[in-house]
Write a structure and sequence with these properties.
This protein is an alpha+beta fold. It has a domain of about 35 residues. Helix content is about 10%, strand content about 15%. The strands form two sheets. Strands 1-2 form a two-stranded antiparallel sheet. Strands 3-4 form a two-stranded antiparallel ribbon. The radius of gyration is 23 Å and the shape is elongated. The mean pLDDT is about 90.
Length: about 60
């Protein structure tokens, strides 16, 4: 098996991992109620997505 002769330096390791950084969450705003909402999801405040009205789910108690 191949075994590295030298330890990977911190700078080389950092260069390799330069694209693994965390990206911030993209937040858009609902065009109807102006509340922040994640993209491609029904608005939790007004229940609309792409001009359609989606009723919020009702919780069933057991």
């Amino acid at each position: 098996m191949a075994v590295p002769k030298r330890r990977t330096s911190r700078s080389r390791q950092g260069k390799r991992r330069s694209h693994l950084h965390a990206t911030p969450i993209q937040i858009s705003y609902c065009p109807y109620c102006q509340e922040p909402v994640l993209p491609h999801r029904v608005c939790p405040n007004c229940g609309k997505y792409r001009e359609k009205d989606y009723a919020p789910r009702e919780k069933t108690e057991k």
